[in-house]
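Reminder to self: tokens first, then the designed residues, so the page reads top to bottom the way the pipeline ran.
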């Protein structure tokens, strides 16, 4: 975080180079080389050796195939090979690997991950299952790159599922039909495309009824850290709603949405900690909110979003700055709501930089509070 303009940086003397620390072993075999001509000759030699070994043994080895063609480590290959007992020749898995590489443009490491997560993808029919699924997604607006991201984030099992298209069609309207937003939501919650749609419908209906959520609100939930609430069971949602009731915000009001978010995103003990901060520092009591920062009970009921903000990382550092400015009579405002809501850049520009002459250590007060949070 930079509160003041950067000072010129002097060039540092060159440091001696040290060998890079060894990285922890990956679950997947790295490619043996990067030069395309060397790789081609090496791969051909390895394939010939493998084929010769297989011919001499008189049988197709699934484990060897997973190691040599799918780039899995032997221990991983041994574990997942038990699910591929039906494979007797490389013809079908070769077709699948070619499809993943060409039709979905997956890189070799991503193909290895896809196979390790869902080995039975190698038993799928390209013509009857995988290619038609790609055509259906493309008809819905997916690009090749986006289909690859879907496999990378949700797994090959989700891609080959018969319910994939119905699930995609279920979520797209909440995201205004934007495929890119759905792909973004899958990064937050890959379970969107494996969730039971009956449960999701019941959960969303409950949230929309009690929290007055619009379809756009549901889309926002899907893209946010609250995404997993959309795929929670109705019983879990009931528990969240009951916890949100403790904030004193009436149900079926627009403000109750923020109470739901606060109840979902924080554990009960952390919420109690925040409530103590509002009560002790800002004057919030059981009956009303004191005028210490200009928030009356009605405003609190209409601004439960305060409960969403991180206490130590956002609210406490800003409150400490306000307390310093008030003690110096440099700021007479009393509304902490807006101070909590503005962006980091706006807070620094409005409440720190203009007062650095009168309070030279103001930036240190703020930075010390934030650093304390980051060090925890």
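Designed residues (376 positions):
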């Amino acid at each position: 975080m930079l509160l003041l303009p950067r000072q010129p940086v002097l060039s540092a003397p060159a440091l001696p180079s040290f060998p890079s620390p060894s990285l922890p072993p990956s679950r997947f075999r790295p490619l043996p080389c990067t030069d395309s001509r060397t790789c081609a000759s090496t791969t051909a030699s390895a394939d010939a050796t493998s084929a010769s070994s297989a011919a001499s043994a008189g049988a197709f080895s699934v484990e060897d195939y997973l190691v040599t063609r799918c780039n899995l480590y032997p221990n991983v290959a041994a574990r997942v090979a038990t699910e591929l007992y039906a494979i007797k020749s490389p013809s079908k898995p070769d077709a699948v690997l070619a499809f993943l590489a060409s039709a979905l443009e997956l890189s070799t490491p991503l193909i290895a991950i896809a196979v390790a997560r869902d080995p039975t993808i190698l038993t799928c029919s390209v013509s009857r299952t995988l290619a038609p699924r790609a055509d259906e997604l493309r008809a819905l607006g997916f690009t090749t790159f986006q289909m690859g991201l879907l496999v990378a984030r949700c797994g090959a099992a989700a891609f080959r599922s018969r319910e994939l298209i119905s699930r995609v069609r279920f979520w797209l309207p909440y995201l205004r039909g934007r495929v890119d937003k759905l792909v973004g939501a899958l990064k937050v919650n890959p379970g969107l495309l494996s969730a039971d749609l009956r449960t999701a419908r019941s959960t969303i209906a409950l949230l929309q009824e009690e929290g007055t959520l619009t379809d756009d609100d549901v889309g926002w939930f899907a893209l946010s850290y609250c995404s997993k609430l959309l795929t929670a069971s109705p019983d879990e949602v009931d528990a969240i709603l009951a916890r949100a009731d403790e904030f004193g915000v009436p149900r079926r009001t627009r403000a109750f949405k923020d109470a739901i978010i606060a109840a979902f995103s924080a554990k009960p003990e952390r919420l109690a900690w925040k409530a103590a901060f509002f009560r002790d520092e800002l004057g919030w009591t059981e009956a009303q909110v004191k005028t210490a920062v200009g928030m009356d009970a009605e405003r609190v009921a209409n601004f439960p979003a305060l409960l969403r903000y991180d206490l130590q990382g956002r609210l406490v550092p800003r409150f400490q700055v306000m307390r310093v400015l008030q003690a110096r009579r440099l700021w007479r405002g009393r509304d902490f709501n807006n101070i909590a809501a503005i962006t980091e850049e706006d807070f620094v520009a409005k409440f720190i930089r203009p007062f650095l002459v009168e309070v030279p250590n103001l930036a240190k007060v703020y930075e010390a509070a934030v650093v304390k949070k980051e060090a925890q």
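Residues 9 and 333 are 39 Å apart (CA to CA).
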